[in-house]
């Protein structure tokens, strides 16, 4: 029997402790997990480019021996097929996340019936946490140390300093 492989796709701009929590839990359920970093976004201009986000994510999950990080520029289900994944794992914080993710799961199921979507609810301490919220706090010089791995907090601080006090 082959390994059960799942992907955890996202933009990870930046990766947060909430993301890491979901990835850690997925790594318990599945034999192997690939964190898929979407290198392009159709909705927003990322703070960090694709290779930077891949590097930040790789460092954040380095403690997980069955987890790797890869960039992708395709539909999530196409990336999942390329990897040989049986599931797409998504974290859910609130009902609003479910509404969006349920719609995406239906599209994905239509496009790739063989790939399941698995939802993991956010752990209570991360239920409010989002990359956009972290970016907003960091842009104004606030501390994000409780919400991101230390290397990410450092990268956010450097990005803010390079942009003249704002990271936008």
CATH topology: Rossmann fold
Q: Helix share of residues?
A: 40-55%
CA-based gyration radius: 16 Å
**What structural class should be given to the helix and strand makeup?**
alpha/beta
Largest sheet: 5 strands, parallel
Describe this structure in words.
The structure is a single chain. The chain contains six helices and five strands. With about 170 residues, the protein is of the alpha/beta class. The chain has one domain (about 5-125): HUPs (Rossmann fold). The chain has a five-stranded parallel sheet, with helices on both faces. The longest helix is centred in the middle third of the chain and has 17 residues, at about 95-110. It is globular and about 50 Å long. It starts with a strand and ends in a 6-residue tail after the last helix. The relative contact order is 0.19. The mean pLDDT is about 95.
What would a concise description of this structure say?
This protein is of the alpha/beta class and 168 residues long. The chain contains 6 helices and 5 strands; from the N terminus they run βαβαβαβαβαα.
Write the layout of secondary structure elements.
Elements: E1 5-10, H1 17-29, E2 32-38, H2 50-60, E3 67-72, H3 76-83, E4 87-92, H4 95-111, E5 116-121, H5 131-139, H6 150-162
Descriptive terms for the model:
168 residues, alpha/beta, Rossmann fold, five-stranded parallel β-sheet
